[in-house]
TrEMBL record, chain A:
This is Cobalt transporter subunit CbtB. The chain crosses the membrane at residues 12-35. Keywords: Membrane, Transmembrane, Transmembrane helix. It comes from the Bacteria.
TrEMBL record, chain B:
The keyword Transmembrane applies. This is Cobalt transporter subunit CbtA. Residues 50-63 have a biased composition (Low complexity). The chain crosses the membrane at residues 5-25, 84-105, 114-131, 151-167, 172-188, 208-231. Residues 42-63 are annotated as: Disordered. It comes from the Bacteria. InterPro entries: CbtA_put. The keyword Glycoprotein does not apply. Keywords: Membrane, Transmembrane, Transmembrane helix.
Amino acid sequence: MAATRTSTTISLPLASRLTTAVFSLMLGVFIIYGVGLSHSETLHDTAHDTRHSYGFPCH
Amino acid sequence: MLVKYLLATIVAGLFAGILLTPAMYVRNVPLILHAEEYENAGGPEHSHDAAGATSEAAPAAVAPHEHEKEVSPALPFGRFGNTLLINLVAGAGFALITGAAALFLGRRITLQNGIYWGLAGFFIFNLAPAFSLSPELPAMPAADLATRQAWWLITVLLTAGGVYLIVLRDEIWAKVLGIALIVAPHVYGAPEADDLTSSVPPTLASEFAVSTLATNLFFWVVLGTALGWAIQHYAQSELDA
């Protein structure tokens, strides 16, 4: 039974997690910057309703 | 590279982004459209207000409004299509950041604890910044955009650090420092417009603030739970290796 319980920690050493973590974080930050903070007019107008709805500072 | 883990987080983000779209259309988008009527048609009636506001506000805060009257350079998928596209992309972005945080911390997001990851994300990205910098409707008075963005970003980073110290560290000093980090940007204060005169009725603004927070809470609960489910189903083998 104990085997079916999922642990809440990852036993994988940090070295094996680090590349994915850094890549994932950089991609995520790049995306959120584009969606929420970029001053590009095309991005602003396309993301307009989402920016307001999400509470990003807008206009 | 843990490819399955990355794909699982992106799938969960896209799913939450899809569900966010109809949720936004229940209240938030109708309120935005209502506010834009005051932004565009408020000219003749409120010309004295508008003139007063524009002359005192920073130039950077005035210019972006003009696109509403010109040809918009937005992507050509229509208002709904653009919003859906951006919500999908944003969902994936927030999912990637949350998945990365869990990897850095050596924690596993599961179906059972996913909701707590979601609540943490909601607190960090929505509730904490909104406490001092309310979600804004179009045509509401606001301080310089870059200053508000900087405050928003710093608040998100400090709050994330604070949540980590309070939730995942046992030491007393960590809890105290965590609370201090979360409170600090609000003691400092968010940038405010000099002139708070607005053509948007205050009722609309308060309805919008509450409805956006409710919508975003829904988004984050879905995202956290979906992350837990997707990672357990698609990436478990990678994490156990």
